[in-house]
Specification:
Length: 516
């Protein structure tokens, strides 16, 4: 690995605890190691002991040595709380300039007061209630942006602070301050009593941190024990912490490469069953017409919208005019605004065009995978918040229709109220045990569909929905929801050009699991 980096890098520094005795007269193993590094143009710069026992275990290698490598003023100093010494040196490096040019613009959260936001937004202009749904969505985006600009205008972010750990209590903060004080005393007077006092306090501080972590995470696990999805999220966060920056290149070319890769992947999968799609489409077209059982939606009331706003997850999309959590907290005063948009969509049978664009965030499938390879990422879709509100209103009415008409399979547990992983497992285990009692052998077939949501054929889906008795404005709305969609990849502040979608149901959508 080092040899490859040495060839690719103009300035390479390799440092760490190598655990080889590299004193003035190095041992055989250390001599061979240093000689091997020298063949790659890396010189060892540490010349004194770096361990309390007098050995040189911690090394710094640099291309070109001290003259050409840019390493200056290397010093070694003992520390009271560890057997290893502290190695300091100075290097000159270019600043880590932020991509996209200019500082990052942010809105101070402390200024985003729900009451102030509602006052800046004002009442919905009743004279515009009859406008088209696309015009109403444009009005929503314009007025909400104006209101949020009024109460919390964007300002440049001069620096970023690390997010405090949730388990870091006020008691730990006080102990940290005390630790700094004892360290200052030892540095000013490096006597043995001061060193002993600092080391004892460091052990107590480390034990307090461990105890605080145990209490915090045990409480999280206990609170989620009856919610499998939340419990899985908590445990996954403990075992696999999210990387700070999983994608090494946020350039525009990288965005376009991701967008093309995801589009080509779906096209390749669909091409493998083109013949089957044609046959199924013909079967759906030949199916006898079904009486229309549902041809219009019930218009939403303010209390319905208020309930939906409280239920939708407050995940903010970069296309949203303001943070979704603010819309949720101010939902009492926003219900009329949102109700007009929702009802216009239901009445016209049109899903707003501006809400059909999805933002894709590539996510590395496993931390151990190579982050430079596109195939090691899965696309995570994020949709505008207002679109998910409209979807949830429609989903509630479609769910009621499916229950009333008894179209749901009795064995279906997914995407169904009152059902879930537990009901599926209970039914499965019960069936297996019954067959075992009868002396039968059971065979369980599990299918994993690649890009399942992305490859759904619109024509087949709409034909089957019509065959279930959906028609009129309802079927027109569903057609509008599926067609004319696009997606773009976002990395940092860079986005790809939108890619049109000719098949599939949108990931991250409220309706997609039901339609699938």
């Amino acid at each position: 690995m080092v040899s490859g980096l040495a060839l690719e890098s103009q300035r390479l520094i390799v440092l760490g605890d190598f655990n080889v005795h590299a004193e003035t007269t190095p041992s055989g193993a250390a001599q061979d190691f240093i000689a091997a590094m020298a063949t790659m143009g890396l010189s060892q710069l540490v010349s004194g002991p770096t361990h309390r026992a007098g050995h040189t275990l911690d090394l710094v290698f640099c291309q070109g040595g001290e003259e050409g490598g840019g390493v200056e003023e290397l010093t070694i100093a003992p520390l009271p709380w560890t057997d290893h010494h502290l190695i300091r040196f100075r290097i000159t490096a270019p600043p880590n300039l932020r991509r996209g040019g200019g500082p990052k613009m942010v809105r101070p959260r402390r200024l985003m007061d729900p009451d102030g936001f509602l006052m800046a937004l004002g009442e919905f202009p009743a004279t515009l209630a009859g406008d088209s749904v696309d015009a109403l969505v444009a009005l929503w985006n314009k007025e909400v942006t104006r209101a949020i600009d009024t109460i919390a205008p964007e300002r440049p972010l001069s620096s970023t602070r690390a997010k405090p750990s949730p388990w870091f209590t006020e008691e730990l903060a006080a102990m940290k301050q005390k630790k700094r004080e004892l360290e200052g005393v030892w540095r000013s007077k490096p006597s043995e009593p001061n060193r002993t006092r600092l080391c004892l306090y460091l052990r107590a501080y480390a034990a307090a941190i461990d105890a605080a972590k145990n209490v915090f995470f045990a409480a999280n696990i206990a609170s989620a024990k009856n919610r499998p999805a939340e419990l899985f999220r908590v445990v996954r966060g403990l075992l696999y912490p999210a990387p700070q920056d999983g994608i090494p290149d946020n350039s525009a070319a990288r965005c376009e490469a991701f967008a093309q890769f995801f589009a080509d992947k779906v096209a390749l999968i669909r091409s493998s069953f083109d013949t089957i799609l044609t046959a199924v489409s013909e079967d759906v077209a030949r199916a006898p017409a079904c009486p229309i059982l549902m041809d219009s939606f019930q218009l939403a009331q303010p209390e319905d919208v208020d309930k939906v706003l409280g239920e939708v997850r407050s995940t903010t999309c970069i296309l949203d005019p303001c943070p979704s959590w603010l819309v949720r907290e101010a939902r009492g005063g926003l219900a009329e605004w949102v109700k007009v948009v929702v009802n216009a969509s239901l009445r016209e049978g049109i899903f707003p065009a501006s809400l059909k664009l999805a933002v894709i965030k590539p996510l590395l499938k496993k931390p151990s995978l190579d982050p430079t390879q596109l195939e090691n990422y899965r696309p995570i879709s994020n949709l505008p918040f207002l679109g998910k509100v409209v979807e949830r209103v429609v989903a509630a009415q479609l769910q009621a229709f499916l229950v009333d008409t008894d179209y749901l399979d009795p064995a279906q547990s997914g995407f169904r109220p009152g059902h879930g992983t537990e009901t599926a497992l209970v039914a499965l285990v019960d069936d297996l045990r019954r067959e075992l009692d009868r002396g039968s052998v059971s065979l369980l077939v599990l299918l994993d569909l690649s890009a399942a949501f992305d490859t759904v054929d619109h024509g087949i889906l709409l034909g089957r929905l019509a065959g279930m008795g959906l028609g009129g404005t309802v079927l027109q709305w569903l057609r509008s929801f599926l067609e004319g969609r696009s997606q773009m990849v976002s990395l940092g502040d860079t986005c790809s050009a939108p890619q049109p979608l000719t098949c599939g149901v949108p990931q991250g959508s409220v309706l997609s699991p039901m339609l699938f």
